[in-house]
Amino acid sequence: MSHPVASIWAATAHPAPETPPIAGAHTADVAVIGAGVTGLGAAIKLAEGGASVIVLDSGGPGFGASGRNGGQVIPGLKHDPDELDKLYGAAATEFAGKTADVVFALIEKYGIDCAATRGGWIQGTLKTSHLPMLERRVAQWKAHGADVEMLDAAGIRRLTGTGRYVGGWIDRRAGTLHPLNYSYGLARAALSLGAQVHGGSEVASLKRSNGRWLLVTANGARIDAGHVVIGTNGYTGRLWPKLKGTVIPASSFQIATAPLSEEQLQRILPGSVAISDTRRIANYMRIGPGNRLMLGGRGTFSEPKELADYRRMVADLKAFFPETAGTPLDYYWSGRVAMTWDHMPRLHRPAPDMTIALGYNGRGVALGTAMGQAIGAHILDPQTPLPLTFRTIRPLPVHDLHPIYASMAIEYYRLRDSLEK
Asked: How distant, in Å, are the alpha carbons of 54, 208, 232, 376, 386 from that of 338?
């Protein structure tokens, strides 16, 4: 079975659950393609409701972004509550505000050992021009009962240890976890409920036949299913027509230092808080396993091979925390984040008894988990509404050229970030 790329998470993970490749012929109520947090979240809800479920993945649980991300559990969507209310309705806003609750409830319910903490998330800003936007954001979430608060420059420095931010806000609904252990824990929960989970089982073909779905894997296994869920996000291939073209698989680069000293830990991100910033091309940071400082951000579209490919991340780390200049790096890795043009996730139903969810724009831990649970509940009882409406699959123009035009867009946004005050 394939394993996650080298990362701090792979190096510190518990043993993976047994998810051998599927073989032979099988029948299930639901076949789930993708053993990330969306697919596993859906599988758990479905199995809880008595449905027979088979989860298939080309790698294994957490192989993609679900096991490589920064482990930040952030509620909400990119849009603020008032805009969500206008675009999608109050139910979507309520769903967005509770996505982190779904994650922590699953962790507690199934005893998932994934170093989960709920120390909050800070969104800081380096731009004074962004402060009014953050003040509106905080006011709107407060109106929805969220435990949020604005921070001035002194307050954010006290909580983060960096003097780069001119202000920001803290969302105490948020937290952090070990994403690969979380994915493994979701897989174990699904298995304990009777679901089948199979790694090394890439779906090669998917066809509708006699009112049901026939899935055939690359190694020849055949699955007859009543409903299909696709939750492949940034690792979406060409299995379903045009789906791959709806998202940009942006690269997220991450680095982790050697363990910080006790003195450094008292100054750098005390209290297990996670942070990111408001720039268009932002960084995100937290303390990870072994008291290592982690930083991530957008990288190039080529696959990184050596530390030199992460030089921008290293420079960003030193800019935020100059005292780490002499601290060695222990890990550097990357993964794919599925981005959409409007920064909103996508729900699709392009055929009967098929549900597709993808495009989490960097908030997949909470949003993907909650979306999977919502999909599972809806399949069990179609009267249970989904948080967003289904959208037609519309590929982005000249999608195959995305490494070129998306790279140009990143550099353009970096320039705009540098020019703003």
From this structure: 24, 27, 9, 21, 21
**Tens digits of residue pLDDT in 131-176:** 999 999 999 999 999 999 999 999 999 999 999 999 999 999 999 9
Give the contacts of 272 (CB within 8 A, at least 6 positions apart).
117, 119, 175, 176, 286, 287
| Pure H helices in 56-195 | 81-88, 90-97, 99-110, 131-143, 153-160, 179-192
CA 377 to chain CA centroid, Å, is 20
Residues 215-242 pLDDT 10s: 999 999 999 999 999 999 989 999 999 9
CATH architecture of 8-401: 3-Layer(bba) Sandwich (3.50)
DSSP state of 20: P
- Please name the residue that has the structure tokens 């396993």: 289
Residue 391 vs residues 95, 102, 344, 373, 395: alpha-carbon distances, Å? 18, 24, 11, 19, 12
pLDDT digits (tens, 9 = 90+) for 354-406: 999 999 988 899 999 999 999 999 999 999 999 999 999 998 875 564 555 45
Token readout for 126 is 């380096």
Who's near 250: CB < 8 A, 6+ residues apart? 234, 298, 301, 336, 337, 338, 339, 406
Judge if pTM exceeds 0.85: yes
Specify the residue for token string 């597709």. 356
**Distance in angstroms (rounded) separating the CA atoms of residues 397 and 320:** 37
Measure CA of the first residue to CA of the last residue in the chain; give whole Å. Answer: 50
What are the domain boundaries of the chain? 8-401
Mapping DSSP onto H, E and C, the string for 224-293 reads EEEEEEECCHHHCCCCCCCCHHHCEEEEEEEEEEEECCHHHHHHCCHHHCEEEECCCCCEEEEEEHHHEE
pLDDT per position as a tens digit, 43-83? 999 999 999 999 999 999 999 989 999 999 999 998 999 99
The contacts of residue 20 (CB under 8 Å, 6+ apart) are 1, 198, 199, 200
The whole-angstrom separation of Cα 106 and Cα 171 is 20
Fill in the DSSP letter of residue 6.
S
DSSP secondary-structure letter at 4?
P
More confident: 274 or 6? 274
